[in-house]
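Researcher: Please translate sequence to structure tokens.
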Amino acid sequence: MAHTTLEQRLPLANDLYNIDHLLSEEERMVRDTVRKFVQDRVLPIIAGHFEEGTFPEGLIPEMAELGLLGMHLEGYGCAGLNAVCYGLACQELEAGDSGLRSFASVQGSLVMFPILAYGSEEQKQHWLPRMAQGRAIGCFGLTEPDSGSDPASMLTTARRDGSSYILNGTKMWITNGGVADVALVWARAEDGVRGFLVERGTPGFTTSNIHHKLSLRASITSELHFEDCRIPSTNMLPEVRGMRGPLSCLNEARYGIAWGATGAARACYEAALDYAKSRVQFKRPIASFQLVQQKLVNMATELVKAQLLALQLGKLKDEGLLHPVQVSVAKRNNVREALATAREARTILGANGITLEYPISRHMNNLESVFTYEGTDDIHTLIIGQAITGQNAFS
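Model: Translation complete:
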């Protein structure tokens, strides 16, 4: 009987813990398909879009064709794949750019998910197939200029007037806002916080894009403005009331971020590893120096830990055992370590690391936003702190 040698069984540099072995054949196929899409279609153009401050809208039909929009949802033209498949897709999209993963997260987790979970049958039939096909784009209006980490203090109102609601207020930092065909807007109504589907072109609804960003430049970020915006009462999501609605959506999006951050971290680690092997100083590749190896080892180890956190999170979600605190643990850790990895990787590339010729500073800048949105690092710290101490530090 032939035996493999220890040398033959050495782990791969980008999969030190053989995590690939823990995935099903379908999960590996989804990951590899999205990875190829990112390599072939995203990486050749994304640095240019980042530099120009534009979103690659031409990729939307291709993402839809791959089933990436609402891929973890059942029915209405959605792919119906498991949570681990969705997480792996987020990982690969963010290895391309956080803006691309943000687009898919907003579309699938923040707009399509609540329509499926809380919408009327008419709303589901009207929006979900079109959104899965990329023929309609959505955005999620929760954050306001003076209401970020405390969304319950929102000032946007929805006043009942006969068979209509009249919306007034402003939403801020809204991904996809400038191109969205429909905005899912959370507003304070007489009976509590409610979600409303507001179509582009509705009188009193306008958007303005936010410019001069130094992060998430290959993503559209907007303000939504509502001034006596009248919408039919049938546009309200009928099956949810109160903050449970938007917070459940955020939990879905945070799940994807926990996975996505591992993709950004991996991209930075691999760029630094390749560079260290080829960059010669003092007549030797810098990968041969102890301090450089220490940096690479730290990055590789944290990547393994983040991937295992994300994978267990996905398995819990697929088994119906997921708790929001567990999502906070993974989102907090994985984004923190991805940002630390990007910064460490940049030091290996020296001055080259600040250029768009390499992906590291682009990911680093993007991760500063990911560190903040869908619950800041501080907020997730307090969520976990309350869970383990029983003490509420929010009030």
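Researcher: Any highlights?
Model: Residues 14 and 270 are 7 Å apart (CA to CA).
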